[in-house]
Write a structure and sequence with these properties.
The chain is an alpha+beta fold. The chain has helices at residues 10-20, 51-60, 71-76, 78-84, 94-101, 103-113, 126-133, 159-170, 239-259, 293-296, 304-313, 387-400, 414-421; strands at 2-7, 27-32, 42-43, 65-68, 89-90, 120-123, 140-144, 153-156, 182-186, 192-199, 204-206, 211-212, 215-217, 221-224, 229-232, 266-275, 278-285, 327-335, 358-360, 363-366, 369-372, 376-384, 406-407. The strands form 6 sheets. Strands 12, 15, 18, 19, 22 and 23 form a 6-stranded antiparallel sheet that branches. Strands 3-2-1-4-5 form a 5-stranded parallel sheet, with helices on both faces. The structure holds adenosine monophosphate and glycine. Adenosine monophosphate binds at residues 118, 141, 150, 153, 155, 185-188, 192, 214, 224, 271, 282-283.
């Protein structure tokens, strides 16, 4: 089969490496891919948001199955457009991708169907939001409604900080139209867990749980990033908690989307906080997480393409989805200065014997040389019987990878190791 993967980051590299293991796959195209992905797929210079060009390419290149990985094209309707031309896809249609595309939608969905989440108010008027903040409990959390490159969430420790956040979103429009509507919500505490799931709109099958490390600096200091590393499984996510999540969150979410006429197919990502009052939803994503995918898929023992096709065909209930009982750790190597400003264009060397463990997020190929081309440059994943060994193996590989201004956290997995000892 000819497969098309839309996107060009570390997550897409992980998807492509896993898809390559399928006997059904003859050829994989990545749109646009990147210089590192080029080792595993044919990269075509079409942007992930250029839906007409993606559809044309798929039609002209006999694509049998398309995987739309990033949030933007999903929210913009890439799956709808491909399906219109008869191309089966992995991923939700736009009317279901809204679960990530609009925080107001997802919060109202959870309220309507009794799915546990932080208490909240929605505002489309700045003065009303500022007035509400006079008496709101502090700390508080301000969220822009739409996609904001993962930056649309501000945790305000003081009333003034909260008001500044509201003004920057609603008056200065720092996130553009995403700030027309905002959500102000209760600040929750507890360990965070990412649970990605496969769903065909009827059955929901959670993948192995994982833990992201969002802050730029060691010991969770510094700015929020797209994610500096992950481990799987997440030690806080016990079997008992998994049962509660299935009953109170996963199943009800899939049912709620059906009841709204927005059946969700693809990967539904649950960002959870295990609060003292039980697990609550922090966010939904309509896609695989990045860098969660880089630890979850290496632990998947079943055929990824078969599972993906089952989500499209509605046959997930009869399809094997098996994960290994090992541990995985992914350390992200970034460019110094990420997520603010950083330099690009440094030559990278990745030894051949560890290339299988490397998922490239930001690199270009120039005259046969791989050059850094992004904030997050690559992720290095290892799988081992114990988390401790997976961490050691990944950091051992990180030492062997060289590029200018390389930066990484030194404590990926540390909190998870501590949790095992608690
Ligand atoms: P998001 O961009 O939605 O992934 O949110 C970024 C991060 O903000 C999450 O991973 C949480 O750590 C934090 N966060 C979001 N909402 C809340 C909340 N209601 N209470 C506490 N932390 C939150
Ligand atoms: N790692 C979080 C996300 O993909 O949104």
């Amino acid at each position: 089969m000819n497969i098309l993967v839309v996107g060009g980051g570390g997550r897409e590299h992980a998807l492509i490496k896993k898809l390559k293991q399928s006997e059904k796959v003859t050829k994989i195209y990545a749109l646009p891919g990147n210089g590192g992905i080029a080792a595993d797929a044919e990269c075509v210079d079409i942007g992930a948001k250029d839906i007409p060009a993606i559809v044309d390419f798929a039609v002209n290149n006999s694509i049998d199955y398309a995987v739309v990985a990033p949030d933007d094209p999903l929210v913009l309707g890439a799956v709808d457009a491909l399906e219109e031309k008869g191309i089966p896809c992995f991923g939700p249609r736009a009317n279901a991708a809204i679960i990530e595309g609009s925080k107001v939608f997802s919060k109202n969905l959870m309220k309507k169907y009794g799915i546990p989440t932080a208490e909240y108010e929605v505002f489309d008027d700045m003065d009303a939001a500022l007035k509400y903040l006079e008496t709101a409990p502090i700390p508080t959390v301000i969220k822009a409604d739409g996609l904001a490159l993962g930056k649309g969430v501000i945790i305000a420790q003081t009333r003034d900080e909260a008001k500044d956040a509201v003004r920057s979103m609603m008056q200065d429009k720092v996130f553009g139209k995403s700030g027309d509507h905002i959500v102000i919500e209760e600040f929750l505490t507890g360990p965070e867990v990412s649970v990605l799931s496969f769903t065909d709109g009827k059955t929901v099958v959670p993948m192995i749980s994982s833990m992201d490390h969002k802050r730029a600096g060691d010991n969770d200091t510094g700015l929020n990033t797209g994610g500096m590393g992950t481990v799987a499984p997440n030690p806080y996510y016990t079997e008992d908690i998994a049962k509660v999540c299935m009953e109170k969150i996963f199943r009800p979410t899939v049912d709620a989307m059906n009841a709204e006429g927005r059946s969700f197919k693809g990967c539904l990502y649950f960002g959870l906080m295990l609060t003292p009052k039980g697990p609550k939803v922090i966010e939904y994503n309509c896609r695989f997480g990045d860098p969660e995918t880089q630890v979850v898929l290496p632990l998947l023992e079943s055929d990824l393409l078969t599972i993906m096709q089952a989500t499209t065909n509605g046959t997930l209930a009869g399809t094997e989805v098996k994960f290994s009982s090992k541990n995985a750790c992914c350390v992200i190597m970034a460019s110094e200065g990420y997520p603010t400003s950083y330099e690009k264009g440094y030559e990278m060397t990745v030894p051949d014997d560890i290339a299988d463990s490397v998922y490239v997020a930001g690199a270009t190929l120039k005259n046969g040389k791989l050059l850094t081309n992004g904030g997050r440059v690559l992720g290095v994943t290892s799988v081992a019987d114990t988390l401790e060994d997976a961490i050691k193996l990944s950091y051992g590989k990180v030492e062997k990878i060289k590029f200018g201004n390389a930066y990484y956290r030194h404590d990926i997995g540390k909190r998870a190791l501590e949790a095992y000892k608690e």
